[in-house]
Amino acid sequence: MDAREFNAVVERLKFRNQEHVAESIGVTLRTVNGYANGGTIPEPVARLLRLMDRLKVNPDSVR
Q1: What tens digit of pLDDT does each residue of 2-38 get?
Q2: Separation CA 31–CA 27 (nearest Å)
Q3: By the 8 A CB rule, do 18 and 38 touch?
């Protein structure tokens, strides 16, 4: 997963903001900002987000 795919998934899942993403997937805001701006996205995070996207999971139900 690259930054383009990450940002597209975040948008499709209708996360409110980067803080919401961070809280939902259990990482820091700084980490999410890094993912969104081209940082390396670990495979477990990529798999989680792809699965959430495929299943249309409401981000508020994942905490």
Answers
A1: 999 999 999 999 999 999 999 999 999 999 999 999 9
A2: 6
A3: no
Query: What CA–CA distance (Å, rounded) separates 60 from 3?
Result: 22
Residue with tokens 């961070």: 22
17-48 in b/e form (b: 16+ CB < 10 A) is ebebbbbbbeeeeebbeebbeeeebeeebbeb
Report d(CA 17, CA 41) in Å as an integer: 18
Residue ranges of alpha helices (H) inside 13-42 are 18-25, 29-36
Residue 40 near residue 50 (C-beta atoms within 8 A): no
The helix or strand, by DSSP H or E, that contains position 5, with its residue range, turns out to be helix 3-12
pTM value surpassing 0.85: yes
